[in-house]
Amino acid sequence: MNEVKKQIAEALSKSNRAPAKATAPAPENSSGEDNYIYSSAGKYISTETGVYLIKPDRDGTEKTIRVTHQRLDVIAIGRTAKNQGYSSLLEWEDIDGNTHQEIISQADLEGEAKDVRRMLADGGLRLKSKSGSIDYLIDYLRSCAPDRRFIIVDRLGWHKNKDGKLFFALKDKVIGQSQEEIIFNSTAPDEALPALEVSGTAEEWRDNVANLCNYSTRATLGVCMAFAAPMARLLDVPTFGIHLKGKTSRGKSTVACIASSVYGRFSSYKKSWQGTQTGMEGLAYNYNDLLLPLDEISNIDPKDVSNVIYAIGNEVDKNRGAKNGLNRTTKTWREVVLSTGEETVTEMLRKANLKAQAGLEVRMPSINAQATDDEEMGVNESFPAGYNAQSYKELLEGNCKKYHGAVFERWIEFLITLDPDNLREEYTRFRDSFIQEYRPTNQNRRIANNFAFVAFAGELATGAGLTGWEMERETSGHSWAREAVGICFKSALDIIGNGLPIEDKKALEHIETLLLENRSNFLNGAIGSSFAPSPCWGYRLLVGAPTVGEVFYIPPTIFAKNFCAVMGEKETAQLLKKYGLLETEAGRLKKRMQFSNDNTAENHRKPYYAVRQFSTSDLIERLTKQAD
Q: Which residues of 43-53 are buried (b: 16+ CB within 10 A; e: fewer)?
């Protein structure tokens, strides 16, 4: 036996672990050794000193070729739950003795060999530089077929095992039972994945964070949203968000901090609104089945915000093609989004002269961060004895730094124990009761369903002993979770308008604002005058019964150009007529008028849209009372 064979034999005898088994039985004329891995090129062996290929030489003797300078083993073969994406789990030691494990797909072994070589080299594996060694390396990796098997998941959150039972995959563990080994393998860098950190115990978090939410309905809402996120898939609740809107230093970030403490430390768990649609789709995928806190909506370009909200709500990426021209696997997600900002989405778009679709406020309704009329209170209705807004904020944020993350794992463990059918029945009863109490319009029913879902999650977590909140309040007879979320829902209705469809509200607010800001551009039709403002938008007259106020007479061309940004000309006129805000003639939406200061009239009446002065908020209040 030559010196190389002696080195291999010595390395084998010193090795305390066997390499992967051979893919085929040893040939009849072999020595019977079972540590070899056979291929058409010869037989490979992995030892502490490297991977070697032993192959017949031209003269019939065995020739030994060194492929690597350190051990490299394929220790398991994996696949996705859909029996696709077959991959190998590689293990090796780098030049400093550190153990590395990486998953490489079988498809990658059929691709560019240099990419595989680069990945191994980056992990500190010394490779032979001799021509042909890379081909032997790929041949070796292809030939390894160990008995150990595992399931690959590239998405955090809920998955099912062979028996259809749920388990929850985290980066470093699985909550729940799976008959097969589970390995999390994401293409996203670690910094893009949610930082699920644990500090303290679930009981410490309950006593020092959740209990302090009794002084703030907004903080309670945030915690309930955090508990709701992993339940959305279980109860088939589509992805939605709630936007916390208010001036700076009102406590919006504190609410997001408290909500994030269910999962980890706010500074590392939160994300920013800043990014492209593609980037935000990737973010949504990474936060699957979790709360996604997006801080400060002003960080995103107004032109992109609508597309991003719809993209996250659609729960699926665009399935852009792979480099090889084939469609790659579609990525899907489910989550709850907690957004913050100084303006609502609609206000933000209006400032940028962009149209806001009605579906935006359904997918992400806004609530006022300020909980009372007192600005100094911010998101709080009250404070613990001896605290003010600043000291209470410091207490909460300090406690969130000390205690976070442990309650999330406890919550998932609890959810796994629940019977899915019973859970759905309980939720349906709770949701129907919530809807009956608040009686939203059909337009706002989906929004009400989402708030009911959030309240149900908070009440369920309270029943599981995770929050320390009351299960039955004297003030309402409901749990604190339901009472607090209900108060926040009323705030959303105040912004959206409960008796007014969202699209109608936007159109009316646009018209109301234009009339108020451009009153000086309308001539007083009761006073003869040759002076005309520039631009001149028409005439105004003060009228009496049935409602005292001004009527603005707007020529059709001016009306269509300036007042129909949300709807078309005819639809806008019909909308005004529907709510009694348009004076008309029989069979017409326009009204013919002649004004004394119209020097071109010459006893000729012209058609105008006669719009009554109005207040959208007063109209909403009137419609709400009618609904009651």
A: bbbbbebbbbb
**Structure-token pair, residue 576:** 């005004």
> Under a CB-based contact definition with an 8 Å cutoff, are residues 532 and 523 in contact?
yes
The pLDDT value recorded for residue 579 is: 92
Q: Are 343 and 245 in contact (CB under 8 A)?
A: yes
Q: How many CB atoms lie within 10 A of CB 330?
A: 9
Q: What is the 3-state secondary structure (H, E, C) of 311-330?
A: HHHHCECCCCECCCCCECCC
Q: How far apart (Å, rounded) are the C-alpha atoms in residues 171 and 194? A: 9
Count of CB atoms situated within 10 Å of the CB of 387: 17
- Nearest in space to 412 (alpha carbons), one of 284, 270, 263: 263
When mean pLDDT is compared across 25-39, 528-542, 603-617, the lowest value belongs to 25-39
The pLDDT of residue 534 is 85
Q: How far is CA 185 from CA 110, 156, 305, 352, in A?
A: 20, 10, 30, 41
Whether residue 338 contacts residue 241, with contact meaning beta carbons closer than 8 Å, is answered with yes
Eight-state DSSP code of residue 24: S
pLDDT tens figures, 283-313: 999 999 999 999 999 999 999 999 999 999 9
- Least Cα distance to 505 among 307, 318, 347 occurs for 347
Predicted local distance difference test score (pLDDT) of residue 108: 87
Residue 9, classified by CB atoms within 10 Å of its CB into exposed (0-12), middle (13-18) or buried (19+), is: middle
pLDDT digit string, tens, across residues 381-416: 999 999 998 999 999 999 999 999 999 999 999 999
* CB-based contact 138:51 (threshold 8 Å): no
Residue in 223, 211, 428, 460 with CA at minimum distance from that of residue 336: 223
Q: What's the burial of 475, exposed, middle or buried (CB within 10 Å: 0-12/13-18/19+)?
A: exposed
Cα 60 → chain centroid? 64
HSE value, Cβ hemisphere, 13 Å, CA-based, for 494: 12
106 versus 627: the higher-pLDDT residue is 106
What the block records as the tokens of 244 is 């916390």
Q: How far apart are CA 442 and CA 462, in angstroms?
A: 30
Q: Categorize the per-residue pLDDT at 492 as very low, low, confident or very high, splitting at 50, 70 and 90.
A: very high
The H-or-E segment that residue 495 falls in is helix 480-496
Instruction: Give me 191's structure tokens.
Output: 């910094």
pLDDT confidence bin for 324, thresholds 50/70/90: very low
Residue type, 10: E
Mind listing the pLDDT tens digit for each residue in 437-453?
998 877 789 999 999 99
- The helix (H) or strand (E) run that includes residue 131 is none
Alpha-carbon distance values, 346 to 194, 261, 351, 496 (Å): 29, 29, 9, 10
Spatial distance between the Cα atoms of 290 and 194, rounded to a whole number of angstroms: 9
Cis peptide before 440 (omega within 30 of 0): no
CA 243 – CA 589 distance, rounded (Å): 38
Helix (H) or strand (E) holding 66: strand 62-66
Q: Which amino acid is at 221?
A: L
Burial of 597 (0-12, 13-18, 19+ CB in 10 A): middle
- HEC string of 557-570 equals HHHHHHCCCCCCHH
